[in-house]
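Hi D.,

Good news: the full-assembly prediction came through. Inputs first.
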Amino acid sequence: MNSIKKQDTADKIMMAAIDLMADRGYNGVTTEEIATKAGFSEKTLFRHFKSKQNLLESAFHRYHYAEEMKDLFDKEITWDLHTDLMMISRNYHRIMHQNRKLIQISGRERENLPGFQESTHKHPQQLKEFLTEYFEEMYNKGEIIQTDPKRQAVVFLYMHYGAAMGRINNDPILEAFSIESFIEESISIFTRALTP
Amino acid sequence: MNSIKKQDTADKIMMAAIDLMADRGYNGVTTEEIATKAGFSEKTLFRHFKSKQNLLESAFHRYHYAEEMKDLFDKEITWDLHTDLMMISRNYHRIMHQNRKLIQISGRERENLPGFQESTHKHPQQLKEFLTEYFEEMYNKGEIIQTDPKRQAVVFLYMHYGAAMGRINNDPILEAFSIESFIEESISIFTRALTP
DNA sequence: AATTAATGTCAGTCATCAGTGACTGTCACA
DNA sequence: TGTGACAGTCACTGATGACTGACATTAATT
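Then the structure:
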């Protein structure tokens, strides 16, 4: 039972930490609260993590969404603009939504998470490069009009990033709206703009 | 010199508070730091504001970007799609940039700012309604194609919201890019998508 | 039955921080 | 010259929060 149970406890504590810190920030939450929420004593928390800071870092490391983002590119590209953009957007929003708590924390805790900001920025960066290449290729295939593919990629990304952040922050604008509906509209606009 | 100087002191303290809290959050900054940065003693801070919480609220109230957003609609609409969208975007980004510190704080400090979230959401809401009406009117004039104007407005807004947030957070994606360049590309895409 | 790993309890340390109270200094102005 | 408005200093308090050490408990393992 040793390492399994041990891991289980650590996981529960990390989950509790993520939950609470996403709502109230690193400094807004006490180690006691985290432990209680996880169903353990504060002492146990400190037996598993050598400090509060270390707990946050561990939690981040453990639940990092790094890898998923990459898979997004490896999916089936059909070279049909609408289909591909829909697929990419859906996956993007799914990943952003799954990782919303980590994203909230990361936005907030620049100071407390050394070298973390960069890892948050790494994946959009990759996505931007992938999209840029995709648009270039589509242009070469004569499927889209010629403009600057890098700029198109950035606009596309920010459009979805904005919506993803709105969703994370419970923006009332999205209340009347499903995210699926947003995706459809945005892709329609994009498709229509780029189709020759 | 009474109330002028008094206001001046209070202002300096509020400015210092905004500066520091935008970087490190409410709980990440001490009243002493704020006072020192403002060039006063901690005592003076508490003579002007009855608590740290009250200081934050006052600062927010004072520098609230509420009003500016509305002016954005009252500007010259030319009923030329490209021109109007450029004007709106430029103003939007200008206001967002001017108020970046308050925006950062507001995103972070949901818990500490009672009823603040709603006031942050109010203006985009207004903007969304204005844009919706604008798109409807443009459709009636036969200047744009028929789709759902509300959805168009939301997509337009989030596109710029995303970029504005990226700019605030120093997203490296925007490094190679001026915001003006983003605006141009995004409006080109939008214009091309909506033009009959 | 003895051992061990994981957790709990309790009492306590140490540092920090919001906020206060008493008193002083300074300048404007009447 | 005296009063009022504003800021400073200093020495506190009271609370909180991260983190520790000693010892007890529980339950599974051998």
